[in-house]
Amino acid sequence: MVDSVLSVGLQGLQNGLNSARQAAEAIGSATTTATSTENDDSAADITAAAVELKLSERQVQASATVVKTADEVLGTLLDVKA
Q: pTM value?
């Protein structure tokens, strides 16, 4: 059971990091030297990517907490068995 929780936490970390990387790439590749209409689109793209980056950060934090908790539970189970 602890293994499956640990796996879920690690998968969440991986997904969050991948999502953060994609959002950072989107922010980095946004163009700021376009026409006025394109600037509005670019600003909206940057805003959406920034929101996605923040959501990814939260996902990584939550997944890290899951991994930490699974590690603590496993440690406690090993202490009880010893």
A: 0.78
